[in-house]
Amino acid sequence: MRVAALMLLNIALVEGKRVRLRLAPEPLDIHGRIVARVLVVPENGNAAEETDACAVLVKEGLAKALGLGMAQEEYQEMKALENEAKAAKAGIWGLENANTAPKPYCAADKTKIYHRSTCAVARHIAPANLHQYDTAEEAEAVGLKPCGKCLPK
Ligand SMILES: [Zn+2]
Questions:
Q1: Which fold has domain 2-94?
Q2: Which of 5, 10, 96, 115 has the greatest number of beta carbons closer than 10 A?
Q3: Across the 153 residues of the chain, what is the mean pLDDT of every consecutive 10-residue run?
Q4: Residues surrounding ion ligand 1 at CB below 5 Å
């Protein structure tokens, strides 16, 4: 859903429109990628009315602020927009567990076995069926037995 929302907004922002790229002070990042702000030019060509597509995506919670190659003050502006989006739980920031690491143990819904989260079996559990535990004891407390392959205990 996040990708779909991002694509729809991105398309609405720029498709069929004239854009201007404002290159960053260091226009190539350490990976050789071009760093630039994408500015959507209005029909009347008035530069004062350009829309900063990058800022819109960050503000809507559909992109993260990354500082590679950007001027420090521009990065701070983007970070402020990102913090607004986080506070409003907009876009990716509203997704459950969006900002949390997976717990070390897990089990699939309606099974009696728990795994280490790194287990090959565990990686095939669909997110909707996934139950996670901080400790092996926590998993066993709900009646689960350890997996014979990843030996979580
Ligand atoms: Zn396992």
A1: OB fold (Dihydrolipoamide Acetyltransferase, E2P) (2.40.50)
A2: 115
A3: 69 91 86 89 92 93 84 91 93 68 88 94 89 93 95 93
A4: 115, 119, 121, 147, 149-150
